[in-house]
Amino acid sequence: MLVDGFGREVSGVRVSLTDRCNFDCVYCHNEGLGDTRGPMEPAENEMGTEDVVRFLEVASEFDVEKVKFTGGEPMLRDDLEEIVRRTPDDMETSLTTNGTFLPGRAEGLREAGLDRVNVSQDAIDREAFAEITESGAYERVLEGVEAALDVGLDPVKLNMVVFEGTVEFIPEMVEHVAANSGLQLQLIEYMPEIAGHPEWAIDIERVHDWLAERADRIEHREMHDRRRYWVNGGDVSSEELRSSDRSSGRSPREDEASGASSDSSDGGMVEIVDPVGNETFCANCHRVRVTHEGYLKGCLNRNDDLRSMGEMTRDEIRDAFREVVHNRVPYYGEYMIRDGDGGWEVNDEYVGA
Ligand SMILES: Nc1nc2c(ncn2[C@@H]2O[C@H](COP(=O)(O)OP(=O)(O)OP(=O)(O)O)[C@@H](O)[C@H]2O)c(=O)[nH]1
Ligand SMILES: C[S@@+](CC[C@H](N)C(=O)[O-])C[C@H]1O[C@@H](n2cnc3c(N)ncnc32)[C@H](O)[C@@H]1O
Ligand code: SF4
Ligand code: SF4
């Protein structure tokens, strides 16, 4: 396995299959590449099926254990099933999608070997959903989640970006996953770095505190040092979540977890993904990314380290992979460092590098 200069093994790759999308979520970072707006037809600059498969075969040579397919909307690719089928057997395959194309295709993906799926659902409310995603496909997304569960792609993780426009729906979403054993919830801290609008962010510690008060059990996940809360339904009113009161009356059991635990006996699982300004998150980051155009990049938040894989021969892919891993730096704490006022600024060492 390749290891970067900060001792981080590269065990996973995130492959963006397209930057096209049928939604236009107001917060979208498009995996670090910005706007998803544009024509929906297949674009010439996208990696072809053979390129993606060859890349995954080389990644497997480097003992990469998992691949996440993402985008844009990865299900706009008609060859997704073929890509999943041809992914090396020793790699766990997962997909992050807006869910609209899962009805009708979930079974094929399962048969092709897909192991897991994350579906973005920011609210249990049709109107709010339409406002956030600039799409009227709310029912279609719910159908997509059902389709995934029906073919045994469970647990399905629901991805919810936590920002001003969604915070009020957290209690209902927690209740929703607590009541449905096939579902888990992932609360993703809004990242303004690429999407802009820093004023939309809310203090994610409030959400941690709110969940800690209600959790029967808390787990630590080694990846990104993420915390998982196991919450039963019941009193999940959002009042405290909206207020800044941080008093915590309970001490839930706290366990270590290295893998994807899914014991539903303790209630619904809620995981918080909180990268913003989080040096510990970056210190536990084991993934390299590939853009739809076939560039490798070492960090979601950076585009100054893009490395082309050229004509995508195996040797070119190997060289690019080694180089990108060699150049990886933790974004927070190394690339971005504290300025005198407690904010973040680019480390001089990397300016123009
Ligand atoms: N800054 C940063 N954000 C990340 C990283 N990984 C995931 N995220 C954020 O979390 C979002 C959802 O991630 P998913 O694609 O659902 O996958 P995941 O939760 O990382 O992976 P699994 O839990 O294994 O399914 C991403 O699009 C990012 O917004 C990362 O390495 N760095
Ligand atoms: C870029 S989308 C691509 C996959 C697919 N279209 C989807 O929405 O699931 C991947 C994930 O990134 C999350 N995301 C997008 N922009 C974000 C931002 N600014 N901050 C935090 N998460 C974001 C989305 O909620 C989604 O779960
Ligand atoms: S569905 Fe995914 S890729 Fe499309 S705009 Fe929303 S977050 Fe971005
Ligand atoms: S280094 Fe940090 S910001 Fe960059 S991808 Fe990894 S966790 Fe995210």
TrEMBL record:
Residues 239-256 have a biased composition (Basic and acidic residues). GTP binds at R14, K68, T96, K157, R287, V288, R289. S-adenosyl-L-methionine binds at Y27, G72, S120. [4Fe-4S] cluster 1 binds at C21, C25, C28. Residues 238-271 are annotated as: Disordered. Pathway: Cofactor biosynthesis; molybdopterin biosynthesis. It holds the Pfam family Mob_synth_C. CDD domains: Radical_SAM, Twitch_MoaA. It is an enzyme of class 4 (lyase). Keywords: 4Fe-4S, GTP-binding, Iron, Iron-sulfur, Lyase, Metal-binding, Molybdenum cofactor biosynthesis, Nucleotide-binding, S-adenosyl-L-methionine. GO terms for molecular function: 4 iron, 4 sulfur cluster binding; cyclic pyranopterin monophosphate synthase activity; GTP 3',8'-cyclase activity; GTP binding; metal ion binding; S-adenosyl-L-methionine binding. GO terms for biological process: Mo-molybdopterin cofactor biosynthetic process. Residues 258-268 have a biased composition (Low complexity). Belongs to the radical SAM superfamily. MoaA family. This is Probable GTP 3',8-cyclase. It comes from Halococcus saccharolyticus DSM 5350.
